[in-house]
Amino acid sequence: MASFNTIAGCVLASALFAMVVGKVSNAVVHPHKLDKPALAVSDDAPTQTAAAPAAVEIPPIGPKLAGANVDAGKALFQKQCFSCHTVDKGGANKVGPNLWGVVNRPKASHAGFTYSSALTGKGGDWSYEDIDHMIFKPNAYVRGTKMAFAGLPKEQDRADVIAYLRTMADTPAPLP
Ligand code: HEC
After folding, report:
1. What tens digit of pLDDT does each residue of 32-70 get?
2. Using one digit for the tens of pLDDT, what is the confidence trace for 14-23?
3. Ligand 1 centroid, distance to 139 Cα (angstroms)
4. At what angle do helices 155-167 and 128-136 cross, to 10 degrees?
5. Model-level pTM?
6. Using CA atoms, how far apart are residues 100 and 145, in angstroms rounded to an integer?
7. For residue 99, what pLDDT is reported?
8. Which class is domain 63-167?
9. Domain residue spans in the chain?
10. For residue 92, is it left (φ>0), alpha (ψ between -120 and 50) or beta?
11. Quick check: 62 and 176 in contact, CB under 8 A?
12. How large is the average pLDDT for residues 160-172?
């Protein structure tokens, strides 16, 4: 009997010991739920940048127009724009609208051409600066435009083309 009691006592004692150790280690390790996942990925700035790249700033084209090369602009127009645009008076609409007198013309206003709702909704007239943005990166300036053109990255090229467009009008708009 004595040995049974001793064994039972030992079992009880070690069970108690295990409980105590368990409580103590719980208290020491102190597990608790994190308020946020430790590896949470911030979902503000970087993802927004990927979804909608900030519009690229370009310096005003106005000051470059007086010294621009109209003949170089004409050659560039024929190479880069003419596949989609005529520019002569009364010229046909092609993939894009005729561009006679486009400087200061209300946007998306040429008769007989079906514009995208993106351009129709832009509003205002085609100032030199707005044309510059349009031919720099059409889809950045008018998100969703039908003008499927990569753009003219060189400022001098854009100045030359705009100076040429200016001459293609009944009364060329004054230079800025
Ligand atoms: C691949 C065909 C294509 C090329 C190349 C192209 N365009 Fe366009 N362009 C269009 C289309 C289509 C529109 C109408 C856009 C819309 O409705 O969203 C347009 C619209 C425009 C407009 C606005 C006209 C208006 O009546 O509101 C201007 C200005 C313009 N283009 C200038 C140019 C110039 C300058 C070039 C050459 C540097 C050029 N485009 C090259 C297809 C083209």
Report:
1. 555 555 554 545 544 444 444 555 689 999 999 999 999
2. 555 555 455 5
3. 11
4. 130
5. 0.76
6. 20
7. 98
8. mainly alpha
9. 2-47, 63-167
10. beta
11. yes
12. 98
Closest ligand 1 atom number to CA of residue 114: 17
The contacts of residue 42 (CB under 8 Å, 6+ apart) are none
Q: 152, 136 in Cβ contact below 8 A?
A: yes
3-state helix, strand, coil in the chain (%, to 5): 45, 0, 50
pLDDT tens digits along 93-121: 999 999 999 999 999 999 999 999 999 99
d(CA 19, CA 94): 86
**What's the CA-to-centroid distance between 25 and ligand 1, angstroms?**
73
Q: Which residues line ligand 1 (CB under 6 A)?
A: 80-81, 83-85, 95-97, 99, 102, 107-110, 115-116, 118-119, 126, 131, 134-135, 142, 145-149, 152, 161
Which atom from ligand 1 is nearest to the alpha carbon of 144?
18
- Measure 59 CA to ligand 1 centroid, in angstroms: 21
Q: CA gyration radius for the chain?
A: 36
